[in-house]
Amino acid sequence: MTGLSTHVLDAANGTPATGVAVSLRDESGAELAAGVTDADGRIGQVGADALPAGIYHLVFDTGEWFAANKIEGFYPQIDICFTIDDPARHFHVPVLLSPYSYSTYRGS
């Protein structure tokens, strides 16, 4: 399996963060793909099946999500910059989100 996926969890409530808008951008900031997290907080395939080696950004519109859920949040946007080093691999970038913090890691 190749490509890129993401998963956003509302860590404060222990539930999926449904409806978070996410965009994939290249190093110059040009948008390559966009999507919205599903009922499980996931986007199973962001963009093309395989991304060439390079530096990318996943940008999460957390401000809109916080507003839609009537949550006062500190981070209106999360921009995770990462490197694709092997286009033949699958990359998963999860986010644990709460109003005043977030964390991420290279998933599998």
From TrEMBL:
EC assignment: 3.5.2.17
Binding positions (substrate): H7, R42, Y105
Gene Ontology MF terms in the entry: hydroxyisourate hydrolase activity
Keywords of this entry: Hydrolase, Purine metabolism
Residue ranges occupied by any Transthyretin/hydroxyisourate hydrolase domain in the UniProt entry: 1-107
Pfam families: Transthyretin
UniProt entry tagged with the keyword Hydrolase: yes
GO biological process: purine nucleobase metabolic process
Annotated InterPro entries: Hydroxyisourate_hydrolase (IPR014306), Thyroxine_BS (IPR023418), Transthyretin/HIU_hydrolase (IPR000895), Transthyretin/HIU_hydrolase_d (IPR023416), Transthyretin/HIU_hydrolase_sf (IPR036817), Transthyretin_CS (IPR023419)
Substrates-to-products reaction catalysed: 5-hydroxyisourate + H2O = 5-hydroxy-2-oxo-4-ureido-2,5-dihydro-1H-imidazole-5-carboxylate + H(+)
Domain of life: Bacteria
Database matches in NCBIfam families: hdxy_isourate
Known function: Catalyzes the hydrolysis of 5-hydroxyisourate (HIU) to 2-oxo-4-hydroxy-4-carboxy-5-ureidoimidazoline (OHCU).
Family stated for the protein in its record: Belongs to the transthyretin family. 5-hydroxyisourate hydrolase subfamily.
Subunit annotation: Homotetramer.
Protein name: 5-hydroxyisourate hydrolase
Gene behind this protein: hiuH
